[in-house]
Amino acid sequence: MMAKKQKAKIAEKELTKGQLRKLNALRKSLGEEIADKAFAEWLETVAVEEAAPVDKNAELIAETLAPLLETKKLKIPRGGYFVTRGRRRVIVSQVEEE
Hints:
The chain is of the alpha+beta class.
């Protein structure tokens, strides 16, 4: 008896539009079995490399406010605040709930 080749399982519903296009292009050019294996390997490497882009400004604000939150000198309500720039100043306004 010959063992059936294991097919790389790819959850196509979880892929982005670009990833689906890449998978379909690979399948057309290489065939389904080889393309699925190659795509699964590529997806693993890309998933490790891609991380959410870090907003340096938001990170700096969070680092600055963290000590104030720990000492309980600052309270941030659930809705939070809007932080905007004005002329030579920073404007902080509370978010209005609807």
